[in-house]
Amino acid sequence: MAVSQPDITFNIVPAQRDVGNTAHRVLIVGQKITAGTATAGEITTDVGNDNEADALFGATSHLASMVRQFRRTNPITPLDVIAYADASGTNATGEIAITGTATAAGTLMVTLGSNHDHKYAVPVAAGATATVVGAALAALVGADTKVQMTAASTTGTVVITHVHDGTIGNNLPLAVAGVPAGLAVAITGMASGATDPTITGLAALIEGIRYHTIVYPGTWSTAIIDTVMDGRFNATNEIVDGVVIMAKQDTYSNLQTVVATLNQPLLMMIGNKLVSSAGRLVGGSVIEIGDNIAAQVAAIRSLRLTQNANIARYVIGNNGPKDVFGGPHLASLPYFNTPFSYLPVEKTGDGFKRAEIEVLQTKGVSILGNNVARNTLIAGEFVTTYMTDAAGNADTSFKYVNYVDTISNVREYMFNNVRTQYAQCRLTDGALVPGYNMANADSIKAYLTGLYLDLAGDGYVLTRGGEENLKYFKQNLAVTLDLAEGKVNIDMIVPVVVQLRTILATVRVAFNTNG
Fold it and tell me: Which strands sit side by side in the sheet containing 149-154, from one edge to the other?
């Protein structure tokens, strides 16, 4: 060995840098058909384009339809899917009964589930009988390789059957328009679907995986997903909470009943007003499959929270050019007024009235509705079903989805950085010795204060900046040590950024300006 003096060693160590929040990830839960190659009851990870979903779950399946809706809006956020096979249940059915003989040519427009994807133009010649028109409609449905329903016509009565057993078929609208002269159409809405898949082991399947957004069928029982999310809200030694999005078409009073007992801070229920007009529409006022509505909401929410995603079409960036790119800072930006370009506007008079929307939002139901020009469907306030604390007292801590998003991102940033900072560390109530991994109460307070300032600054905008807010945070930050156990107890109050929701102004009339 050669002589080499002086003896010199240079170690390379990682740069000290803050640890950001985990990348957004989405889970969709639903039903597959037997033709799908995915294994029922297991997670299929990183589902990509339409063709992949069609092969995995079956092109006409409930799940493939939801994935198509999600990927149409959001092609970049990682997406996992849990598919369940049909139980031995009952398929939902509906009916479009055509009678009469056309006295003039025209085009009968029929929608099965989705105004965007499954709207059929049935050409009608003068003199065409109901039998001919019904057969033409059934043929168009049969030629649609991605519709969730089958159609069989008998002397003009077209029976619509959902491809899956269970209740999910009950959440699909049927609509007609442009009925030619001489014909009449009567719709019987989708109903009688029963016996959903048995959902077992869901908590174990997703254990330890952070899903920021979960789409869950709106007609399924909430009991299982409610229990699963309870266990993920304040999990020990990990961050696994997220928001479950469900959609349900029902009446004003029934929607209030549905959410009344939930009180779940991690569950968002989208309400779609049930319209029962046998000659025009039986189903939700937003003519789209309920679970597809949830998938589109999830797509935009996850796109907003995906770092550097281009979201210019979904935010109003009049004074905030940085808000047109996604990231954790979008957690504090309101969801209301978000446009949904792939969902149809409601027919005037079909949707909930403004006073009803206000009540529903107060009770924990989120609503999509027309903008003031009635040319785009937009989001109202996104709320959770959380109403009261454990003692039954009214509590707004987690009322709004923005509040949940904001505090969840704050917690995750602090969790990730504290875990990294103190991965191997000594604990003392004395002075720190320079050059050694050590911590005491004062150093921990100083480090947490730095994290608070990070969260108030560029890239996050989640906590409130300024001297008064920083002073408040410091005054309400308590760190106590248990040296015998090597334990640090931290208590903090974090002033977070909230949303501008209401402006109240007074306009006073003046008849002169002389005094």
Answer: 149-154, 157-165, 91-100, 183-191
